[in-house]
Every structure is written in structure tokens, then in C-alpha cells.
Design a protein that fits this description.
Rossmann fold; binds NADP nicotinamide-adenine-dinucleotide phosphate; 12 strands; alpha/beta; about 20% strand; 2 domains
Length: about 280
């Protein structure tokens, strides 16, 4: 009989997480022996909570807000990508040791390729709005695909400068722009990505003028609630290909699932609909 695999997602609060739905869908779809739970661990109990998962025989876990950065310091081994992002979203437990990964960049790239399968990032110019945790993962993904240039713009400019410094890239690969000049900076862009929380339910819309944006540019909003943000509606009206954020959420789960359950699962329309319910 095959081994029963226990996995889960840790965070605080954790009830909002879509990860149990995604992973349990795949466990069922592939007829595997296992479970995936939402596990609430408050910040002051992170070390103890993780130790309990080791003791209870978990194969691994995902990490969400607010633990992504702090969990990294608990890992015995951290893959290069997660190190560059300064955050882990996936942990594999092997012989009581923690191996930290970050799969958000994979999720971002594969979401783009779902809609634009022939899009090549190499030598292209990307404008990234926002400099939070998601932006770091996306920048790491873009650099892995040999993007030509990233224009990074954030309301708080220092945070963009910090990403540029900490991620240690050459001075002309990431150019930090000014938030107020975000409209003009779109000139010559091949890809525009919103990683700010603007446009999310309960947040103001992202105010940006597409006048300078080439029609061939892809526009990706990683906000997925609502799915069709005002930014994406405006992109479509402008003639650009608009890419929603839900695929990033589902794709980032695939490498984690593979680490624990041994197979890289597919993203199906049925799963997309379930996640959007
Ligand atoms: N699709 C997916 O799989 C996926 C994955 C991760 C995150 N997300 C979404 O991405 C968004 C960002 O997540 P995160 O983890 O990176 O969050 P975060 O670390 O809190 O960063 C938030 C970003 O939004 C900016 N921002 C917030 N309010 C703003 C305003 N009024 N005007 C201008 N900029 C504003 C912040 O700028 P300041 O630095 O100036 O505060 C910062 O750059 C969230 O909506 C999240 O749900 C989606």
C-alpha cells in the first residue's frame, strides 16, 4: 500500500487560503493517498508550529502571509531562487530537515504562457508596478527568462531601490522609475505587470493611462479578486492582450505538489472554476 502523505499550508489567518482546495482537488483527481490542510500558526509560535509538523510526519507545507520571510530563516537548506526573493512559499521536510523553495515565479511565468504560449521574455522590456513580496518573485522569474530590462515603479520608491540592491542585479537590468511618471514609462514596453494591491476588492483602482503603451504589449494583473480588474478591462479596450492573475495562484502550487506527491499536476478548467467560486 502506498504511503499516506500529509501536507498543508501555514499562515495567520489562514481561512481565506485557496491552497487546500487546489491540492485536495489534485489528490482526488490523481487518486493519491494524502491530505492537505489549512494550519493556523500565529507568528509567535512559528518555530513550535513547524516543529509539530515535523513530529507529526508531514512531508511538507506551503507558507503564506505573514510567514514567508521568517520561515526562510528556519530552513536548513534554501534554494537559490527563494534566497534571491528572500521568502519561501514551499517547504519540503526530509529526515526532519527543512528545504525551502519559492514557486511564485514559476506560477507567474506559466500563467503568462497559458494565455500567450509563444511569448518570449528574452531581451524584452517589462514594466513592474509594485515592490512588495509578489514583485520580488516576479522579478526573479523575469530574470530567469533573461528579460532585457525591468522598469520597477513603486509608490514608495525606497522599496523599489531596496529590491534592486538586494537582488544584486546589474545597474541597467532593473531601472527604478518614479510612481508619478508611470503613464509615460509605458512607452516601448512589451509587458506590463501590476503587482500592487490596487484594483483588489475594497482597494482603489489603479490609475494609469495607456496612451504610451504599445498595442502589442501584454498586460497582466496579478490581483485575482475581482478576476477582471479595471486595469485588464482598460487593456482590452486599448487592444492589448489582458492576462488575469488566477493562473499564477494555481500554477505556483504545481511544483510544490510535485515535491510532495511526486507528479506535476495539470491546471484544468474545472479547477479554475472551483478556485473562482
Ligand atoms: N495571483 C497570485 O498568485 C498572487 C500572488 C501573490 C500576490 N498576489 C496579489 O498581489 C498583490 C500584492 O501582493 P504582495 O504580497 O506583493 O503585497 P505587499 O507585499 O503588501 O505589497 C503591496 C504593494 O502594493 C502597493 N500599494 C498598496 N496600496 C497602494 C496605493 N494606494 N497606491 C500605490 N501602491 C499601493 C505597495 O506600495 P508601497 O510599497 O508604497 O506600500 C506595494 O508595492 C495583492 O493584491 C495580492 O493578492 C497575487
Amino acid at each position: 500500500m502506498s504511503e499516506f502523505i500529509k501536507a498543508g499550508v501555514i499562515g495567520h489567518p489562514i481561512t481565506h487560503s485557496k491552497s487546500p482546495l487546489i491540492h485536495n482537488y489534485w489528490i482526488k483527481a490523481y487518486g493519491l493517498q494524502g491530505s492537505y490542510e489549512a494550519i493556523d500558526i500565529p507568528p509567535d509560535d512559528l518555530e513550535g508550529g513547524v516543529k509539530r509538523l515535523i513530529d507529526e510526519g508531514y512531508t511538507g507545507f506551503n507558507v503564506t502571509v505573514p510567514h514567508k520571510e521568517t520561515a526562510l530563516s528556519l530552513c536548513d537548506k534554501v534554494e537559490h531562487n527563494a534566497q534571491a526573493i528572500s521568502a519561501v512559499n514551499t517547504v519540503v521536510i526530509e529526515d526532519g530537515k527543512l528545504h525551502g523553495l519559492n514557486t511564485d515565479g514559476f506560477g507567474f511565468l506559466n500563467n503568462i504562457w497559458d494565455t500567450a504560449p509563444d511569448f518570449e521574455f528574452e531581451k524584452k522590456r517589462a514594466v513592474v508596478l509594485g515592490a512588495g513580496g509578489a514583485a520580488r518573485a516576479i522579478i526573479s522569474g523575469l530574470i530567469g527568462e533573461e528579460i532585457g530590462q525591468i522598469i520597477l515603479i513603486n509608490r514608495t520608491r525606497e522599496k523599489a531601490e531596496k529590491i534592486k540592491d538586494e537582488m544584486g542585479f546589474s545597474s541597467d537590468l532593473i531601472i527604478v522609475g518614479t510612481w508619478e511618471l508611470r503613464h509615460q514609462i509605458l512607452e516601448g514596453a512589451d509587458l506590463l505587470i501590476n503587482t500592487t494591491s490596487l484594483g483588489m476588492e475594497g482597494q482603489p483602482a489603479l490609475d494609469i493611462d495607456f496612451g504610451a503603451l504599445p498595442k502589442k504589449a501584454l498586460v497582466n494583473d496579478i490581483v485575482y479578486a475581482p478576476l477582471q480588474t479595471d486595469l485588464l478591462k482598460a487593456a482590452q479596450e486599448n487592444g492589448n492582450v489582458a492576462i488575469t492573475g488566477i493562473g499564477m495562484l494555481i500554477h505556483q502550487a504545481r511544483p510544490a505538489f510535485k515535491e510532495w506527491f511526486g507528479l506535476l499536476p495539470d491546471v484544468t478548467d474545472e479547477l479554475r472554476s472551483l478556485v473562482l467560486k
